[in-house]
Amino acid sequence: MWVAFGLVALALYFAQSMTYELRASDNRAASLEAEQAIEGAARYVAYTLKTLGTNGAVPDLLSYQREGIVVGTAQYWLIGRTAQQTTPTEPFFGLVDEASKLNLNTATLEMLEMLPRMTPELAAAIIDWRDTDSTPSQGGAESETYQRLQPAYNCKNAPFETVDELRLVMGADMDTLYGEDANLNGILDLNENDGNILPPFDNRDSRLDSGILDFVTVYSRQPSDNRTNVNSRQDLSAALQLKFSTTRANEILAKFPQGGPRGGGNATMTNLLMFYYQSGMTVDEFNQVATMLTVTNAPIEGLININTARAEVLACIPGIGTDNAQSLISYRQSSPDKLTSVAWVTEVLSRENALKAAPYITTESYQFTADIAAVGHFSRGYCRVKYIFDTSEGTPKIRYRQDLTRLGWALGAVTQQKLQLAKDLR
Ligand SMILES: [Ca+2]
Ligand SMILES: [Ca+2]
Ligand SMILES: [Ca+2]
Ligand SMILES: [Ca+2]
Q1: 132 CA to middle of ligand 1, Å?
Q2: Can you give the pLDDT at residue 19?
Q3: How far is CA 421 from CA 60, 377, 412, in A?
């Protein structure tokens, strides 16, 4: 009798562990499917950027697939960001424009200080981290400070290569970097609005108070090749002749007298809005030539795309600030067909403010994040990988790849319920 009972128990035990084994290998198979779906998604994004992201264009949301795309038994989503002011509780799907963010390598101290959750000390430490000297700026930190840490390390004294490098910079704690968005999906998940019941700590105000990571990049870079440098009078003349009548082209050219500033001639144009104002062109005229023109022969780093930047980022730009950021966003929403070139800001900002903002703004984008989440069969095996694509050299290239699966579920409650329902129905 006892022997029989023992045998039954043993059999039950093995049956149980067999089920676990099966389920575990089934989950492994599912996450393998999800990983393959993500790789397929990355190829799809490269193709999308190649066809829709040419010459600095931001692919139109309606012209590519972003949500619940089925690949065999797997499914994937592109986790994006919206410029809407209200906090969504469900993810926004799409590619993320890196030029919609503030570039850590080019932003001035004053611009960095305007970011949400930024402290003057951290802003100063960011400048010290990337500048080549070892003299701490006020409130900042150089190697001397980092050498006192356990473990000790040196200040980089070179440009940021990833935004995650911020974790090494003095004063950049998790709260500052992530804010309430513990899974970095741009929406308020349940645990991000429950105070301190579940981590992270949040203020329970039903609004997502994002950290700095949501607003910064190191990738934004605009090429200048194959363009006309407006500082070359001869090239400018040729470019204007292409689009306008000879009479009109000569009228515009006459606004840029020969001989350089010393000979009573023209000053160097350091940005395109400066050129626009001096040229006497209408906004429509300028829109026709803007993408053909540049003010330098080298790539320009860190320009912010005023068509895609969120209010928090627009507010960092000199001449814009918190007040004008809202006006720009309202104009963007009411006049989506008028955003062809940077000249549209002159409809909202005073000439003085537009010229202050001018060195920092663009309407072109060449780098995009594809934040891809996927599940395998029966909605199992959740995975998430972030890719940064760069189109500034023509064919889209992957600049960075980071596995974000560890941050946990990032597709929101509705998708979770939908997938659960599909699972229950099978
Ligand atoms: Ca330094
Ligand atoms: Ca979140
Ligand atoms: Ca919480
Ligand atoms: Ca909050």
Answers
A1: 5
A2: 66
A3: 31, 14, 15
Ligand 2 mean position to 374 CA, how many Å? 17
Share of the chain above pLDDT 90, in %: 86
Burial of 191 (0-12, 13-18, 19+ CB in 10 A): middle
**pLDDT tens, position by position, 138-188:** 999 999 999 999 999 999 999 999 999 999 999 999 999 999 999 999 999
Cα-to-centroid distance, 316 and ligand 1 (Å)? 23
367 CA to middle of ligand 2, Å? 23
For ligand 4, a single-atom ion, which residues have Cβ within 5 Å?
A: 203, 205, 207, 209
pLDDT averaged over the chain? 93
Q: The CATH number of 106-217 is which of 1.20.1280, 3.30.750, 1.25.40, 1.10.40?
A: 1.10.40
- What is the whole-number distance in angstroms between the Cα of residue 110 and the centre of ligand 2? 28
Residue 37: its pLDDT value, please? 98
8 A C-beta contact, residue 371 and residue 403: no
Whole-angstrom distance, CA of residue 364 vs CA of residue 342: 9
